[in-house]
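>> Question from a student workshop board

For tomorrow's exercise we were told to take the sequence and the ligand below, predict the bound structure, and bring the output to class. My setup keeps failing. Could a helper post the expected result so I can at least see what it should look like? The ligand is fe (iii) ion.
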Amino acid sequence: MSTAITDIGELVTWEAEQPIRHDAALVVEDGRVAWVGPSADVPATDERVDAGGGTVIPGFVDSHTHLVFAGDRAAEFAARMAGERYAAGGIRTTVAATREAGADALEALGRKRLAELRAQGTTTVEVKSGYGLDTATEEALLRVAGRLTPETTFLGAHVVPQGWDADAYVDLVTGEMLARCAPLAKWVDVFCETGAFDADQSRAVLEAGMAAGLLPRIHANQLGYGPGVQLACELGAAAADHCTYLSNADVAALADTGVVAGLLPGVEFSTRHPYPDARHLLDAGVRIAIATDCNPGTSYTSSMPFCIALAVREMGLTPTEALRAATEGGARSLRRDDVGHLRVGARADLVLLDAPSHVHLAYRPGVPLVTRVLTA
Ligand code: NIG
Ligand code: FE
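>> Workshop helper replied:
Here is what the output should look like for this input. Compare the format with yours to find the bug.
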Protein backbone atom coordinates (compact mmCIF):
# COMPACT_ATOMS: atom_id res chain seq x y z
CA MET A 1 0.00 0.00 0.00
CA SER A 2 1.49 3.37 -1.05
CA THR A 3 0.23 6.89 -0.44
CA ALA A 4 1.52 10.14 -1.94
CA ILE A 5 1.09 13.39 -0.05
CA THR A 6 1.16 16.07 -2.72
CA ASP A 7 1.01 19.85 -2.98
CA ILE A 8 3.02 20.39 0.20
CA GLY A 9 3.86 24.10 0.44
CA GLU A 10 6.58 23.43 3.01
CA LEU A 11 7.93 20.00 3.94
CA VAL A 12 10.22 19.61 6.96
CA THR A 13 12.26 16.40 6.69
CA TRP A 14 15.53 17.34 8.49
CA GLU A 15 17.50 15.88 5.55
CA ALA A 16 21.13 17.00 5.76
CA GLU A 17 21.25 18.76 2.37
CA GLN A 18 17.81 20.28 2.36
CA PRO A 19 16.16 20.09 5.79
CA ILE A 20 13.14 22.10 4.59
CA ARG A 21 11.71 21.80 1.05
CA HIS A 22 9.08 23.80 -0.79
CA ASP A 23 6.47 22.66 -3.36
CA ALA A 24 7.26 19.10 -2.36
CA ALA A 25 5.67 15.67 -2.15
CA LEU A 26 6.30 12.62 0.00
CA VAL A 27 5.45 8.96 -0.57
CA VAL A 28 4.62 6.54 2.23
CA GLU A 29 4.94 2.82 1.62
CA ASP A 30 4.18 0.19 4.24
CA GLY A 31 4.33 2.73 7.04
CA ARG A 32 7.72 4.20 6.06
CA VAL A 33 8.79 7.26 4.10
CA ALA A 34 9.75 5.83 0.70
CA TRP A 35 10.35 8.94 -1.42
CA VAL A 36 10.71 12.71 -0.97
CA GLY A 37 11.01 15.20 -3.83
CA PRO A 38 9.46 17.98 -5.90
CA SER A 39 5.66 17.82 -6.18
CA ALA A 40 5.94 17.79 -10.00
CA ASP A 41 7.96 14.51 -9.93
CA VAL A 42 5.77 12.46 -7.59
CA PRO A 43 5.59 8.79 -8.67
CA ALA A 44 2.31 6.88 -9.14
CA THR A 45 0.86 5.47 -5.88
CA ASP A 46 -2.27 3.61 -4.70
CA GLU A 47 -3.62 6.71 -2.93
CA ARG A 48 -3.15 10.47 -2.83
CA VAL A 49 -3.59 13.03 -0.07
CA ASP A 50 -3.61 16.70 -1.13
CA ALA A 51 -1.90 18.89 1.46
CA GLY A 52 -3.50 21.97 -0.13
CA GLY A 53 -0.29 23.98 -0.09
CA GLY A 54 0.05 23.62 3.70
CA THR A 55 2.98 22.45 5.79
CA VAL A 56 4.02 18.90 6.62
CA ILE A 57 6.28 18.24 9.62
CA PRO A 58 7.46 15.10 11.45
CA GLY A 59 5.11 14.16 14.30
CA PHE A 60 6.21 15.66 17.60
CA VAL A 61 8.22 13.42 19.96
CA ASP A 62 7.17 14.31 23.51
CA SER A 63 10.02 12.79 25.51
CA HIS A 64 8.74 13.60 29.02
CA THR A 65 5.19 13.15 30.35
CA HIS A 66 3.37 11.89 33.43
CA LEU A 67 0.10 11.07 31.61
CA VAL A 68 -1.28 8.48 34.01
CA PHE A 69 -2.68 10.05 37.17
CA ALA A 70 -5.98 10.95 38.81
CA GLY A 71 -7.14 14.11 40.54
CA ASP A 72 -6.79 17.82 39.91
CA ARG A 73 -4.50 20.51 41.30
CA ALA A 74 -6.01 23.62 39.76
CA ALA A 75 -6.28 25.21 43.21
CA GLU A 76 -2.51 24.80 43.68
CA PHE A 77 -1.93 26.53 40.32
CA ALA A 78 -4.28 29.36 41.25
CA ALA A 79 -2.48 29.80 44.59
CA ARG A 80 0.86 30.01 42.73
CA MET A 81 -0.48 32.65 40.42
CA ALA A 82 -1.43 34.54 43.60
CA GLY A 83 2.17 34.33 44.87
CA GLU A 84 2.68 30.87 46.48
CA ARG A 85 5.87 28.96 45.58
CA TYR A 86 5.91 25.48 44.03
CA ALA A 87 7.28 22.68 46.25
CA ALA A 88 7.95 19.05 45.34
CA GLY A 89 5.60 17.86 48.11
CA GLY A 90 2.50 18.66 46.01
CA ILE A 91 3.14 15.36 44.23
CA ARG A 92 1.66 13.57 47.27
CA THR A 93 -1.78 15.10 46.59
CA THR A 94 -1.84 13.36 43.21
CA VAL A 95 -0.54 10.14 44.77
CA ALA A 96 -3.54 9.97 47.09
CA ALA A 97 -6.02 10.45 44.21
CA THR A 98 -4.15 7.99 41.96
CA ARG A 99 -4.04 5.22 44.56
CA GLU A 100 -7.82 5.49 44.94
CA ALA A 101 -8.65 5.53 41.24
CA GLY A 102 -8.19 1.91 40.09
CA ALA A 103 -6.56 0.67 36.89
CA ASP A 104 -9.59 1.05 34.58
CA ALA A 105 -10.16 4.67 35.51
CA LEU A 106 -6.44 5.41 35.20
CA GLU A 107 -6.35 3.87 31.76
CA ALA A 108 -9.37 5.90 30.64
CA LEU A 109 -7.69 9.09 31.89
CA GLY A 110 -4.41 8.19 30.20
CA ARG A 111 -6.15 7.44 26.88
CA LYS A 112 -8.07 10.72 27.00
CA ARG A 113 -4.84 12.66 27.50
CA LEU A 114 -3.08 10.65 24.80
CA ALA A 115 -5.86 11.59 22.34
CA GLU A 116 -5.37 15.22 23.36
CA LEU A 117 -1.63 15.01 22.60
CA ARG A 118 -2.21 13.33 19.27
CA ALA A 119 -4.78 15.90 18.14
CA GLN A 120 -2.03 18.48 18.63
CA GLY A 121 0.49 16.55 16.54
CA THR A 122 2.32 14.27 18.98
CA THR A 123 2.97 10.81 17.54
CA THR A 124 5.60 9.46 19.97
CA VAL A 125 5.29 9.92 23.73
CA GLU A 126 7.19 8.84 26.81
CA VAL A 127 5.02 8.07 29.87
CA LYS A 128 6.27 7.76 33.45
CA SER A 129 4.90 6.07 36.53
CA GLY A 130 5.53 7.94 39.78
CA TYR A 131 2.15 8.76 41.28
CA GLY A 132 1.82 5.39 43.00
CA LEU A 133 4.85 5.25 45.31
CA ASP A 134 3.98 1.74 46.46
CA THR A 135 4.83 -1.44 44.61
CA ALA A 136 1.30 -2.41 43.56
CA THR A 137 0.34 1.05 42.27
CA GLU A 138 3.65 1.70 40.49
CA GLU A 139 3.26 -1.67 38.76
CA ALA A 140 -0.34 -0.87 37.81
CA LEU A 141 0.69 2.54 36.43
CA LEU A 142 3.36 0.94 34.25
CA ARG A 143 0.89 -1.65 32.94
CA VAL A 144 -1.41 1.19 31.89
CA ALA A 145 1.52 3.19 30.43
CA GLY A 146 2.59 0.16 28.42
CA ARG A 147 -0.85 0.06 26.78
CA LEU A 148 -0.34 3.68 25.67
CA THR A 149 3.28 3.67 24.45
CA PRO A 150 6.46 1.59 24.19
CA GLU A 151 8.38 4.46 25.87
CA THR A 152 7.60 3.63 29.50
CA THR A 153 9.59 4.95 32.47
CA PHE A 154 9.78 3.65 36.03
CA LEU A 155 9.73 6.69 38.36
CA GLY A 156 9.10 5.02 41.71
CA ALA A 157 11.59 7.58 43.10
CA HIS A 158 9.40 10.60 42.36
CA VAL A 159 9.18 11.79 45.97
CA VAL A 160 9.42 10.14 49.40
CA PRO A 161 5.89 9.04 50.38
CA GLN A 162 4.23 10.32 53.54
CA GLY A 163 5.48 8.59 56.68
CA TRP A 164 8.60 7.05 55.09
CA ASP A 165 12.28 7.53 55.87
CA ALA A 166 14.02 8.48 52.58
CA ASP A 167 16.71 5.76 52.70
CA ALA A 168 14.19 3.07 53.60
CA TYR A 169 12.08 4.16 50.65
CA VAL A 170 15.10 4.02 48.31
CA ASP A 171 15.64 0.45 49.51
CA LEU A 172 12.06 -0.39 48.53
CA VAL A 173 12.40 1.31 45.13
CA THR A 174 15.68 -0.44 44.31
CA GLY A 175 14.49 -3.78 45.71
CA GLU A 176 10.99 -5.22 45.52
CA MET A 177 9.47 -2.34 43.52
CA LEU A 178 12.17 -2.42 40.83
CA ALA A 179 11.91 -6.21 40.54
CA ARG A 180 8.19 -5.91 39.76
CA CYS A 181 8.44 -2.81 37.57
CA ALA A 182 11.61 -3.41 35.51
CA PRO A 183 9.94 -5.92 33.14
CA LEU A 184 7.31 -3.27 32.33
CA ALA A 185 9.63 -0.32 31.60
CA LYS A 186 12.30 0.80 29.14
CA TRP A 187 13.63 3.65 31.29
CA VAL A 188 14.42 4.43 34.94
CA ASP A 189 14.08 7.99 36.24
CA VAL A 190 14.51 9.82 39.58
CA PHE A 191 13.58 13.30 40.82
CA CYS A 192 16.99 14.55 42.03
CA GLU A 193 16.10 17.71 43.95
CA THR A 194 15.92 19.26 47.38
CA GLY A 195 12.68 17.89 48.85
CA ALA A 196 12.92 14.71 46.76
CA PHE A 197 16.14 12.60 46.39
CA ASP A 198 19.76 13.68 46.96
CA ALA A 199 22.75 12.73 44.79
CA ASP A 200 23.57 9.45 46.57
CA GLN A 201 19.97 8.29 46.67
CA SER A 202 19.49 9.26 43.00
CA ARG A 203 22.66 7.39 42.00
CA ALA A 204 21.46 4.30 43.89
CA VAL A 205 18.11 4.38 42.07
CA LEU A 206 19.60 4.85 38.60
CA GLU A 207 22.35 2.26 39.09
CA ALA A 208 19.89 -0.32 40.37
CA GLY A 209 17.63 0.38 37.40
CA MET A 210 20.56 0.01 34.99
CA ALA A 211 21.56 -3.27 36.61
CA ALA A 212 17.98 -4.44 35.97
CA GLY A 213 18.33 -3.57 32.28
CA LEU A 214 16.68 -0.14 32.25
CA LEU A 215 18.15 2.96 30.57
CA PRO A 216 18.68 6.03 32.77
CA ARG A 217 17.12 9.50 32.49
CA ILE A 218 16.65 12.05 35.25
CA HIS A 219 14.67 15.03 36.57
CA ALA A 220 17.55 17.42 37.30
CA ASN A 221 18.19 21.02 38.35
CA GLN A 222 14.51 21.99 38.24
CA LEU A 223 14.03 24.06 41.39
CA GLY A 224 17.62 25.11 42.06
CA TYR A 225 21.27 24.33 41.34
CA GLY A 226 22.16 20.76 42.25
CA PRO A 227 23.99 17.54 41.41
CA GLY A 228 21.47 16.01 38.98
CA VAL A 229 22.99 17.07 35.67
CA GLN A 230 26.49 15.95 36.70
CA LEU A 231 25.08 12.59 37.79
CA ALA A 232 23.34 12.17 34.42
CA CYS A 233 26.61 12.90 32.62
CA GLU A 234 28.59 10.55 34.86
CA LEU A 235 26.15 7.67 34.27
CA GLY A 236 25.71 8.31 30.54
CA ALA A 237 21.99 8.99 30.88
CA ALA A 238 20.05 9.60 27.68
CA ALA A 239 18.63 12.85 29.05
CA ALA A 240 18.71 15.30 31.91
CA ASP A 241 15.31 16.95 31.97
CA HIS A 242 14.37 20.42 33.28
CA CYS A 243 17.88 22.02 33.36
CA THR A 244 16.37 25.23 34.71
CA TYR A 245 19.34 26.09 36.96
CA LEU A 246 22.67 25.22 35.31
CA SER A 247 26.22 26.14 36.33
CA ASN A 248 28.90 26.66 33.68
CA ALA A 249 30.29 23.24 34.64
CA ASP A 250 26.86 21.66 34.05
CA VAL A 251 26.65 23.20 30.57
CA ALA A 252 30.18 22.00 29.75
CA ALA A 253 29.41 18.47 30.99
CA LEU A 254 26.24 18.27 28.88
CA ALA A 255 28.15 19.45 25.79
CA ASP A 256 31.03 17.02 26.40
CA THR A 257 28.92 13.93 27.05
CA GLY A 258 26.07 14.49 24.57
CA VAL A 259 23.47 13.94 27.28
CA VAL A 260 20.31 15.61 25.93
CA ALA A 261 19.05 18.58 27.95
CA GLY A 262 15.27 18.16 28.04
CA LEU A 263 13.67 21.59 28.26
CA LEU A 264 10.14 21.80 29.63
CA PRO A 265 8.91 25.37 29.19
CA GLY A 266 5.39 24.52 30.39
CA VAL A 267 6.95 24.09 33.85
CA GLU A 268 8.44 27.56 33.97
CA PHE A 269 5.14 28.93 32.65
CA SER A 270 3.22 27.22 35.45
CA THR A 271 5.67 27.69 38.35
CA ARG A 272 6.98 31.17 37.51
CA HIS A 273 10.56 29.93 37.70
CA PRO A 274 12.92 31.54 35.15
CA TYR A 275 13.07 29.91 31.72
CA PRO A 276 16.35 28.12 30.95
CA ASP A 277 18.51 29.83 28.32
CA ALA A 278 18.18 27.43 25.40
CA ARG A 279 20.08 29.81 23.13
CA HIS A 280 23.12 29.56 25.39
CA LEU A 281 22.84 25.76 25.50
CA LEU A 282 22.73 25.42 21.70
CA ASP A 283 25.60 27.87 21.28
CA ALA A 284 27.64 25.84 23.79
CA GLY A 285 27.06 22.66 21.74
CA VAL A 286 24.45 21.04 24.00
CA ARG A 287 21.82 18.81 22.39
CA ILE A 288 18.34 19.85 23.42
CA ALA A 289 14.82 18.45 23.36
CA ILE A 290 11.55 20.22 24.11
CA ALA A 291 8.79 18.28 25.88
CA THR A 292 5.53 19.07 27.67
CA ASP A 293 6.16 17.32 31.04
CA CYS A 294 2.36 16.93 31.01
CA ASN A 295 1.53 16.50 34.72
CA PRO A 296 -1.04 17.93 37.15
CA GLY A 297 1.45 19.82 39.33
CA THR A 298 3.87 21.83 37.24
CA SER A 299 2.74 21.69 33.61
CA TYR A 300 -0.76 20.57 32.78
CA THR A 301 -0.44 21.09 29.04
CA SER A 302 -0.52 18.40 26.37
CA SER A 303 0.45 20.83 23.62
CA MET A 304 3.83 20.64 21.92
CA PRO A 305 2.94 23.69 19.77
CA PHE A 306 2.41 25.70 22.98
CA CYS A 307 5.82 24.56 24.28
CA ILE A 308 7.43 25.49 20.95
CA ALA A 309 5.90 28.96 21.13
CA LEU A 310 7.22 29.40 24.70
CA ALA A 311 10.68 28.15 23.72
CA VAL A 312 10.82 30.69 20.91
CA ARG A 313 9.48 33.63 22.88
CA GLU A 314 11.11 32.95 26.26
CA MET A 315 14.15 30.73 25.70
CA GLY A 316 15.86 32.35 22.72
CA LEU A 317 15.27 29.71 20.04
CA THR A 318 14.33 30.38 16.43
CA PRO A 319 11.09 28.67 15.31
CA THR A 320 13.16 26.19 13.27
CA GLU A 321 15.43 25.33 16.21
CA ALA A 322 12.40 24.87 18.47
CA LEU A 323 10.67 22.55 15.96
CA ARG A 324 13.85 20.52 15.62
CA ALA A 325 14.11 20.18 19.40
CA ALA A 326 10.47 19.05 19.57
CA THR A 327 10.95 16.37 16.91
CA GLU A 328 14.52 15.20 16.27
CA GLY A 329 15.65 16.34 19.74
CA GLY A 330 12.88 14.33 21.41
CA ALA A 331 13.82 11.28 19.35
CA ARG A 332 17.45 11.58 20.43
CA SER A 333 16.32 11.91 24.05
CA LEU A 334 14.51 8.57 23.64
CA ARG A 335 17.41 7.06 21.66
CA ARG A 336 15.17 6.58 18.62
CA ASP A 337 16.31 7.17 15.05
CA ASP A 338 13.11 6.03 13.31
CA VAL A 339 11.02 9.03 14.43
CA GLY A 340 11.47 12.80 14.70
CA HIS A 341 12.39 13.24 11.01
CA LEU A 342 10.95 12.42 7.57
CA ARG A 343 14.03 11.22 5.72
CA VAL A 344 13.59 8.13 3.53
CA GLY A 345 13.25 5.12 5.85
CA ALA A 346 11.62 7.03 8.75
CA ARG A 347 8.36 5.88 10.29
CA ALA A 348 5.61 7.72 8.44
CA ASP A 349 4.47 9.67 11.50
CA LEU A 350 3.62 13.09 10.15
CA VAL A 351 1.46 16.12 10.74
CA LEU A 352 -0.32 18.41 8.27
CA LEU A 353 -0.59 22.04 9.32
CA ASP A 354 -3.01 24.59 7.91
CA ALA A 355 -0.18 27.09 7.62
CA PRO A 356 2.26 28.19 4.92
CA SER A 357 5.27 27.39 7.10
CA HIS A 358 6.30 25.79 10.40
CA VAL A 359 7.05 29.30 11.72
CA HIS A 360 3.30 29.63 12.31
CA LEU A 361 3.61 27.16 15.22
CA ALA A 362 5.16 29.99 17.24
CA TYR A 363 3.79 32.95 15.26
CA ARG A 364 0.17 31.87 15.94
CA PRO A 365 0.30 30.58 19.53
CA GLY A 366 -2.80 28.84 20.79
CA VAL A 367 -4.28 28.41 17.29
CA PRO A 368 -5.21 24.82 16.30
CA LEU A 369 -3.16 24.51 13.09
CA VAL A 370 -3.00 20.70 13.03
CA THR A 371 -5.46 19.41 10.41
CA ARG A 372 -4.33 15.80 10.08
CA VAL A 373 -2.07 13.37 11.92
CA LEU A 374 -0.86 10.25 10.07
CA THR A 375 0.97 7.41 11.82
CA ALA A 376 2.71 4.31 10.51
O1 NIG B 1 8.37 16.98 36.20
N1 NIG B 1 9.64 17.30 39.01
C1 NIG B 1 9.02 16.33 39.35
N2 NIG B 1 7.91 15.87 38.78
C2 NIG B 1 6.99 16.68 38.04
C3 NIG B 1 6.09 17.45 38.93
C4 NIG B 1 5.18 16.58 39.60
C5 NIG B 1 4.10 17.21 40.40
O2 NIG B 1 4.23 18.32 40.96
O3 NIG B 1 3.08 16.52 40.46
C6 NIG B 1 7.74 17.55 37.07
O4 NIG B 1 7.72 18.78 37.14
FE1 FE C 1 8.47 15.43 35.03
